[in-house]
Amino acid sequence: ILGHHYTRTFLETAVASMNAGCNLELSYGMRNNVFMHISKALAMGNITLQMLRDRVRPLFYTRMRLGEFDPPAMNPYSALDLSVVQSPEHRSLSLEAAVKSFVLLKNVRGTLPLRARDLPGKRLVVVGPFADNPRVLFGDYAPVPEPQYIYTPRRGLETLPANVSFVAGCREPRCQQYSRAEVVGAAGAADVVVVCLGTGTDLETEAKDRRDLSLPGHQLELLQDAVQ
């Protein structure tokens, strides 16, 4: 927090934040956070009691609007139990949201969509570190996933009426150990190749940024080998 050198102490930061209109601090896991110094700032006269009330009022107003202080009987979510978690209706809605969120940057010669009627007898290979690794499919702030409900690209594509095979090429997003022969052999024998690449939280999350947008490790090489 002090690394930007805008203030020198948490007390100064608390005062500056209050004056700027900030009324909420995200400080999970911090034993000594900035807003713990508000009482000291108030005692020293750096902020007024009226300012403190003005900052707190929207917080409680929002909590009231959300029903946080209502009796449990008034909360419509109180009647829900674990049976609604991953219910068929919710999974169907999740699938619809996923389908509608795809962004197709290029569709050379109308390759997509793959049509089930054209796939029987075809050889489809899925390659890449993201093809069948459930752990790397979830981003920062994701919930703890239930393995039985995770459809990796490989698992999803295996539901198609095609001869589906899989090779990773490299097992993790860092892709330091790459088997070129594995990818070239699988892709060369396939009618359709699906390449699954990316970064994942191993390489970038909040407070762990990358210096460039290049594919990590040997992933670009993997892609080029699959295309070739």
From TrEMBL:
It comes from the Eukaryota. Signal peptide: none annotated. Keywords: Glycosidase, Hydrolase. Residues 103-226 form the Glycoside hydrolase family 3 C-terminal domain. InterPro entries: BXL, GH, Glyco_hydro_3_C, Glyco_hydro_3_C_sf, Glyco_hydro_3_N_sf. Pfam families: Glyco_hydro_3_C (PF01915). GO terms for biological process: arabinan catabolic process; xylan catabolic process. GO terms for molecular function: alpha-L-arabinofuranosidase activity; xylan 1,4-beta-xylosidase activity. This is XYL2 arabinofuranosidase. The lineage of its organism: Eukaryota, Metazoa, Chordata, Craniata, Vertebrata.
